[in-house]
Write a structure and sequence with these properties.
Blueprint: H1 2-9, E1 11-17, H2 23-34, E2 39-42, E3 50-57, H3 64-67, E4 72-80, H4 86-96, E5 99-103, E6 116-129, E7 132-139, H5 145-156, E8 160-170, E9 173-174, H6 181-192, H7 197-202, E10 204-205, H8 206-209, E11 215-218, H9 223-227, E12 237-240, E13 249-254, E14 257-264, H10 268-271, E15 279-284
Parallel strand pairs: 3-8, 11-13
Antiparallel strand pairs: 1-3, 1-10, 2-3, 4-7, 4-8, 5-6, 6-7, 8-9, 11-12, 13-14, 14-15
């Protein structure tokens, strides 16, 4: 029981969101089911949108700088309001809406409505059935798909709207790893009854979640300083990824356990010769 409680405080749940509730309402359901103090999602899905929602629990919510900005993959249906040549639309999207685009967030978004660059890695049309066009797209985190579809229609001069949308990937997670609310509830009931096997399979430890992120290992002698919020100097560091650039979020490790999130203050090449702190201790992740 104690081991699972520790895991619950530092883990992520991959949920298959149904149509209907908002992402925030899903957070509240998960928090209630698992009896947590905190639960927060990375990458909001509109109420009618289904699919992969990454939900962090308790201390794991401090990893949001990594989770929120991860790339996302979606599958959906565009409904056309006019006659369109499929090949022409396909060519138009490839020429105008892949690569770096400029997108202004929609009116109802929580961010400032300023034009900003977003990467569209691909926007593939899979087929057409009457007025419905099936598509799959992979985009940079923070891209609004409904707005993207609207902008395509506006520039193509044919009215269209997003009929349905499902998120299938977020970062290195996929929908095949996700569970439903009902499955999560059943796993927690089994855990309360003494069988934790199902719940253990669902809970993803923070170390697994952030395994591909840039990281720095702290020497044992300097752990007390870091846990008191001290900025990290070069002599504190046992090892660090050489790709680190100034401003990068970095996972802070003691041995193989995550103890916090830091922000690089200089590029890796400048760290060794720096007489100042090289990494800011941004947030601590506790047991």
């Amino acid at each position: 029981m104690e081991q699972i409680e520790g895991l619950l405080r530092r883990s992520v749940v991959l949920l298959d969101k149904p149509s209907g509730p908002t992402s925030r309402e899903i957070d509240e359901r998960v928090k209630a089911i698992l009896k947590r103090k905190k639960a927060g999602h990375a990458g909001t899905l509109d109420s009618k949108v289904t699919g992969l929602l990454v939900i962090a629990l308790d201390e794991a919510t401090k990893a949001m700088p990594f989770l929120a900005n991860s790339d996302k993959t979606y599958e959906g249906i565009i409904q056309l309001h006019g006659d369109v040549d499929f090949s022409e639309l396909e060519r138009f999207i490839g020429e105008n809406f892949t690569g770096l685009i400029t997108q202004t967030p929609p009116v109802k978004s929580r961010v400032a409505r300023r034009p900003r660059e977003r990467a569209i890695y691909y926007f593939n049309l899979l087929g057409k059935e009457g007025k419905n066009v099936h598509f799959r797209t992979k985009v940079q985190g923070g891209t609004y798909i409904r707005k993207l579809v609207h902008d395509i229609g506006e520039k193509f001069n044919v009215s269209m709207h997003m009929k349905s949308l499902r998120r299938t990937e977020s970062g290195h997670f996929s929908i095949g790893q996700a569970v439903t609310l009902e499955q999560l509830e059943e796993a927690y009931r089994e855990y309360e009854g003494g069988d934790s096997s199902s719940l253990e399979k669902i809970l993803m430890p923070l170390e697994e979640v952030l395994k591909d992120e840039r990281r720095v290992k702290i020497k044992k002698d300097y752990i007390p300083k870091v846990l008191n919020g001290s900025p990290i100097r070069w002599e504190y560091i046992e090892s660090i990824d050489r790709e680190v650039e100034s401003g990068d979020n970095i996972v802070l490790l003691f041995e193989d356990k995550i103890i916090g999130i830091g922000v690089a203050l200089v590029d890796f090449n400048a760290m060794r010769s720096s007489s100042r702190p090289v990494v800011k201790t941004d947030r601590l992740i506790l047991d």
